[in-house]
Sequence to fold (582 residues):
Amino acid sequence: MSTKEMSSGIFEITERGGKHLATINLVPGASVYGEKLIEIEGCEYRIWNPKRSKLAAMMIKKFNIPIKRDSKVLYLGAASGTTVSHVSDIVSEGIVYAVEFSPRTMRDLIGLCDMRPNIVPILADANKPQSYAHIVEEVDVIFQDVAQPNQSEIAAVNAMQFLKRNGHLLLSIKARSIDTVANPKNVFKNEIRKLEHEFDVGFEILDSRELAPFHEDHLGVMARVLRVRK
Amino acid sequence: MKIITWFGTLTLDDYGKVLEWDLFPKDTSALAEILVQPKKVEIDIPPACFDIRAAAIECGFVGSTEEYNTLLRDVSIRAAKKQISGGTPDMGIIQAVEALDDIDDAANTLSERLAEWYGMYFPEVGLSSEPLARFVAKYGSRSNIPTDGHLYEKATSSMGAELAGPDEELVKGFAENICTLYDSRSRIEDYLVKSMETSAPNLVNIAGALIGARLVSMAGGLEKLARFPSSTIQVIGANRALFKHLRARAPSPKHGIIFNHPQIKNSPWWQRGKIARALAAKISLAVRMDVYSDGGLNESLKTELNAKIESIKAAHPKPPKRESKAGMGKGKGRSQNKQQNKQSNKKAGGRR
Fold:
């Protein structure tokens, strides 16, 4: 068994069964959603399944993930915290602001936050950054996985309020939640165009790749903010 | 400029420098309490990219970044717990509807098993589902049927095997369990009827308690249902047909779960679509009355609906003739269409 650090805090573990993505468990001994724990040289890793996490799929698709050990991350669409837990592993000296709108999934998310020291749960609508602007500070990275028809707008308003200059936006666009019937390719093209031209915040698209076969009809997008502050 | 943060209100100058501050008490539960309260309108939110953390340290609210993280985390968790603890009556309705479906699934599976099992011992019994479960739970072996019981004749001449001892206890116990499921089902139904009548009297009056509850459950709450257009209400529950219609050239669905309403179900097919449209319109009005006005029951909706349905029935007493002839032709046309659709779908798939 061997490990190789792919990106800050994200490892590739090679064992007999093949290669897996993994992060170092911030709370050793605890498995969050039934994922496998592997101990290598005194260090416990949590296997990270790209089929369950858009961020892991982006990693495998060779995105240059900008999340570092001390990053501050705003996570929009935290759901029950599957991916959030791995982000929390990666930013062991940073903090994750996890925004989720549904009270039911917030229940699971709070269970996760109780166990981990670096997640701040926020029950709010990602459409309205003003409703949590008094809690969230300026962040290095925004990760967004919200499956809403106005995903790009949500990314723009949040980047405007919270993302630092040259900060990164990681976005997972779900074609089916923007238009159930249109061809995903066209939906993606349209969204990219929107991100590049329609918003004041000024996104520069660094990378965009489809997340198939891990997530069908999803596009991963990485962008940077080149805003001139008013 | 005066802004609010999670730890207090701050006054900033034009360059974003903190001039004055008014801090909240540094106590986790008090801070969480403030966080969940709706914010006052006259106070602004922090300007974009304002460094809240530095401000908190500058005002002396916390001593270090670590303390800031720990305190903010504790406060947020406390606040989030507070926010999700409240439940509304329609959440109870949703759970009850889902429980009803689960019980139906389970009871059906178990009843089929019981029918198979008991069939070994008394194949002539001629009962199924709930009556069978009640029967087996009551008598067990067919030899226990009293002489005046109406199945006595069949029981004495049955070709089934003898049921006795531990086998009888087992089958009887199994049947009793199924009976408690049916009991539980009827209790849930009673609950639904009662709680729908209190929280949505107008909806119950138009749609009936169980269909109403199902609509609430599928919409995800009474208020969400009130925001649906009536065209959506008309086809809730017909998702597959609706998306087939949107994607391909399939005909649009006429009704979703409101099909179970006796006014639609018991009408001939050519009136159903029209009645469904009228019913959905009234349902959407009724839900809005329940959610947004505090007045109780409004009978006029029901009278209007009945009048509308009467007029539909009067206007279309017979199946549309031309269409029924063309209906056959149309049927052919449709199947041709379908084939074309399939082909064009294939093509589209190929292009992808």
Notes: Chain B touches chain A at residues 3-6, 35, 39, 45-46, 48-53, 69-70, 72-73, 76-77, 79-81, 83-84, 243, 246-247, 348, 352 (CB under 8 Å). Residues 324-352 of chain B have pLDDT under 50 and may be disordered.
